[in-house]
Predict the structure.
Amino acid sequence: MIPYDEYIRKIIHLFNLIIPFGYLYVINDKYIMVQILILLTIIFLFIDIARHRIVWVQSMFKILFNRMLRGHELKGHLTGATWVMIGSLITIILFSKPVAVIALIFMSLGDTAAGLIGQRFGKHKVGNKSWEGFLAGLIICCIVAINFPFLPLKISLAGALVAMIMELLPIPLDDNFKIPLGSGAIMMMLSTPI
């Protein structure tokens, strides 16, 4: 059984879609989007540091968010939300707009599906992840890739596969960082003419 707080965490994780869809449909200028993400990243980093060092921030954070945090986040590591900001900022700086947008959608939807299905049905483990979660995330990412009109299908599908490989592998980086950067890197390589 998945704890209630995990569902809340995943619902919040889906709000990350604001970043790629905002970049795609609202803020067309990469420079402006980067400026916004720099500001948000600084704010998130400040809050993340303050929650360990400033008593009143610690108290508020504990009331609002502690139940949803992972063990390593409680012990002084950055929260997943801060990693979303860092990963989104670097992804948008490094990659073309279509690649950045779909890589960030993979991070939000694929990681959410992999986490929920993996926790509920995961029996075949790879570290603390599961093949069941990997397949659920891959299916969702492939559906996104098939319906994403801004890149050739083979490039989007390759990005979907790499996104979920990055989610599955026990690389000691946050999923919110390694998923968009890994999938974005492979899509950029495949879309660059030799």
